[in-house]
Amino acid sequence: MNLDRYKNLKRQNRETINLNPIQRGGVIPSEAKKAIYEFWDGYSICDFCHGRLDEIDNPPVRDFLNDLSEFLNMDIVRLTHGAREGKFIVMHALCKEGDYIVLDKNAHYTSYLAAERAKLNIAEVGYEKEYPIYKIDLERYKEVIDELEDKNKSIGLILLTHVDGNFGNLNDAKKVGKIAKSKGYPFLLNCAYTVGRMPVDGKKLKADFIVASGHKSMAASGPIGVLAFNEEFSEVIKTSKRYPIKEVEFLGCTSRGLPLITLMASFPYVVNRVKYWEDEIKKTRYVVDELEKIGFKQLGIKPKEHDLIKFETPILDEIAKRDKRKGYFFYDELKKRGITGIKPGVTKEVKMSVYGLEWEQVEYVVNAIKEIVNR
Amino acid sequence: MNLDRYKNLKRQNRETINLNPIQRGGVIPSEAKKAIYEFWDGYSICDFCHGRLDEIDNPPVRDFLNDLSEFLNMDIVRLTHGAREGKFIVMHALCKEGDYIVLDKNAHYTSYLAAERAKLNIAEVGYEKEYPIYKIDLERYKEVIDELEDKNKSIGLILLTHVDGNFGNLNDAKKVGKIAKSKGYPFLLNCAYTVGRMPVDGKKLKADFIVASGHKSMAASGPIGVLAFNEEFSEVIKTSKRYPIKEVEFLGCTSRGLPLITLMASFPYVVNRVKYWEDEIKKTRYVVDELEKIGFKQLGIKPKEHDLIKFETPILDEIAKRDKRKGYFFYDELKKRGITGIKPGVTKEVKMSVYGLEWEQVEYVVNAIKEIVNR
What's its job (chains A, B) (predicted)? Predict the structure, then answer.
C-alpha cells in the first residue's frame, strides 16, 4: 500500500473560477469555514445530544430546523444526506411496492434510482416541445394520472423537478401541485437546484414534500440534504416500535457531522443571498446574450429563469477539428485563464453557471471565452 | 428568525479530554484538517468525476477503496453514510420482506432500525450469562437458526456486532462466521467500534460483509461509513437498468463530500494506529484496575478486550445523595478539570473510553476521578 498518496491531499482547482453548475451553489462562505474548525471531529455535533439529532440544542440544530421551516414555508423539516436520499425516504415511506410515480422527463437520474430502489414504477410526463426548449408539459400531469387511473394502476406519488440539472428549466410547480391536490395524491417537489439559490415558498407552490441539497445549492460541504413536509403528512415519518424516539426512515440520525455544521453556519448567508436572485438572473442572461453573439446557442427556456445554462456550441466543435488538442482545447485554454468546471473534451454542448460570481468575474469569464473562440 | 445564533458557532467542549466512547475514535489528525481546507466546498470531490464516486482518480478515491479492501482483507469496498446505512443496504439488497435476521442481543439500535426499515423480522441470540458479563452465547446462533428452519422461516442474514456499544464486549466473530457458512447464510459483521481502532481481518473472521464507521472509529468527520464485501456477493450490488453505471442501493453516489476527504487523509494515520492496539488495551485495563479500587465495578467481559468501558458506580450514586448538585456533581467536577463526555446527571452507570489519549492524559483522568470521589 502506498500510503503517501493520501498525505497532503490537494485540490487542483481550488483557486479557479469553477463554472460547473453543480458546484456554484455549494461554495461555502467564511462563516462556515470558521465553524468547521470547531466541529471537525467525528460525532462532535453529538456532545449535547439527548437521543435525537433534530432536537439538539447546542449547537442549535432544533432552532435551525424551525427556522428552515419558516424559510421554506413548510411545517416540518428533517435532515437527510442529500436530495436523493430525501426522495427515497418519501417514496419508501409513502408508497407500496409496484406503485406508480408520475414524474417529469427532465427528472434527475437519482429520482429514477430512488424509485428503482423503492421498487416502484414510473410514468413520465414529456415535453410541450422538445428541441430546443425541452419545456415540460405540465398540464400533461393530469392526463398521465387519468391514464393510469383508467388502467387501475395505483399511484403513490407525484414528483416534479423544480429546476432540472440538464437545461436549467424552471417549472411552474403550483400548476402540478394543484393537479396533485385535485386528484388526491401527495406532491414531492425536488428543489435541489432552487432552495438556497432562489426564494422557494413551499405552501405557495402547493408542495406536500420538498427535498433540497446542502452541497448543491445551500453553501454547505456535502453530503447533506433537507426534507420538508407539511403537518398533514407528519404520520408518514414513523418512529420505531422498539425505539420510540427514533425515526425509522432516518435510521435514527442522518447527517451527524460536519456537513450539518456548515449548513447551519451558512444559513444566514443563504437567507440573504436568495434576495439577490434577480441579479443572478441578470448575470445569467448577460452570459447568454454575449455568448450567443459568438455562435453559442442556449437550449431550454428563453429567456433564462435559472442560473444553469446549457449551450449548443457548434463553434467549439469546428475549432476542435483544426486544433491539435482536439476537443480538449477549450478546457485547456480556460484552465490557462483560471477557469474550470467545463467538461474536458466536450465541444458539442457545454453546461455552465456563473451563480454567485461578482460581475467583474462574470465579465472576465465572458471575455475569456470570446478570446478563446475568436483567436 | 434570529439568524445571529448561527454566527460564530462554537464547540463548547473543543479543548477538553472527551471520554465519550463514540467520540474517541473520531478525533481527526492534522493531516485531515489540512485536507479539509482544500475540499470544504460542496461537491468539490467531484471536480474530476466521470460518473462514479468510487472511480474518481483525483483525489485518489479509487486507489483508496482498493487500499481499504487490503486493509480489511475483503475483496470490494464501497462508501456509505455510516455503518447503519451500510447495514440497511445489505439487508435491503439481500433479503426479501418478512425474512428473518439473526442477530446478537447486544446489537446496536440501528441494526434493529435497519431491519425495521427493510421490513424484516428479528431473531435474537442472547447471553451466555447476563449480569455482570453480558457475553453473547455465540454457539446459540446455531440453535436459533435451527429453530427458525424448523418453523420454516426464511432467514435472510446473520448479523453479529463485533464490539457492542454498551459493554464494549468483543465477540469471536469467526465462530459465528463458521456457523453462518455451514448453514449457507450470508454473514454481516458490524465493525463500527473495531475497524480503525484495532486490526480487523475480514477473511479471517469469515465475514461476507463488513460495515464500519468513519466518524466513530476511523478518525473521520462524519457522516461516513464503509461497506466491504467479498467477490462472491458482488452481484448483490446491482446497477440501475436505466443508468447502467449507477448502483441502485447507493442511489448513484453516497458520501460525496468532506467526510470522504477526511477518511482518506486520515487513512495512513489509522493504518498506523491499529498497530498499537495492545497499548490501548493496556491503558483501558489500567483505568479499570485503578477505578475499581475506588468502588467502580466494570461490567462486561473481564479483562477488557476493547477500549469502551462500562462501569457500575454505586459510589457516585452515594455521593450524589449528599451533594447539592445531585447527580450532576460528577459531570461538573470533571468539567472543572477539563474532562467531558460522561453523561450529565447519570450516577448509577458510566461509560467511558481513553482510546488515543497519551499515557499522561490517562493518568490525569484516573487521578481526577479519584480526587472527585475521595474529596
Answer: Converts O-phospho-L-seryl-tRNA(Cys) (Sep-tRNA(Cys)) to L-cysteinyl-tRNA(Cys) (Cys-tRNA(Cys)).
Q: Between B11, B42, B214, which is nearest A38 by CB?
A: B11
- From the list A172, A123, A314, A223, the residue with the least C-alpha distance to B46 is A223
A73 SS3 class: coil
| Predicted confidence (pLDDT) per residue in B150-188, tens digit | 999 999 999 999 999 999 999 999 999 999 999 999 999
Which candidate in A11, A63, A239, A247 is best for mutational testing of the B interface (most B CBs within 10 A)?
A11
The sign one gets for the Cα dihedral A291, A294, A300, A303 is positive
Which domains, and CATH codes, for chain B?
A: 25-269 (3.40.640.10), 276-374 (3.90.1150.10)
Considering the entire predicted model, what is its pTM?
0.97
Using an 8 Å Cβ cutoff, are A331 and A342 in contact? yes
Closest CA to A189 of A197, A180, B139, A198: A180
Question: In this complex, which of B6, B114, B254 lies closest to A251 when CB atoms are compared?
Answer: B114
The secondary structure of A168-197 as a DSSP string is: -PBP-HHHHHHHHHHHT--EEEE-TTTBTT
Paired strand residues for B242: none
d(CA A220, CA A32): 8
Determine the Cα–Cα distance for residues A320 and B183; give it in Å rounded to an integer: 61
CA of A6, closest CA in chain B: separation in Å? Answer: 5
Nearest Cα of chain A lies from the Cα of B361 at a distance, in angstroms, of 19
Judge whether B64 and B224 are in contact, CB under 8 Å: no
Predicted confidence (pLDDT) per residue in A342-369, tens digit: 999 999 999 999 999 999 999 999 999 9
Residue B204: how many other CB atoms lie within 10 Å: 12
Helix (H) or strand (E) holding A77: strand A76-80
- State which amino acid sits at residue A231: E
**Which residues are within 8 A (CB) of B344 and not within 5 positions of it... i.e. 6 or more apart?**
B327, B328, B331
Nearest-CA neighbor of B343 among A237, A163, A47, A39?
A: A47
Cα separation, A168 vs A165, in Å, equals 6
Query: How many CB pairs below 8 A link A and B?
Result: 279
For helices B314-322 and B328-336, angle between their N-to-C axes, nearest 10 degrees: 90
Beta-carbon contacts of A134 under 8 Å, excluding residues fewer than 6 positions away, are A106, A127, A166, A167, A169, A299, A300
In sequence order, the 6+-apart residues with CB closer than 8 A to the CB of B146 are none
Contacts of A330 (CB under 8 A, 6+ apart): A316, A319, A320, A342, A347, A350, A372
For residues B191 and B271, give the distance between their C-alpha atoms in angstroms, rounded to a whole number: 15
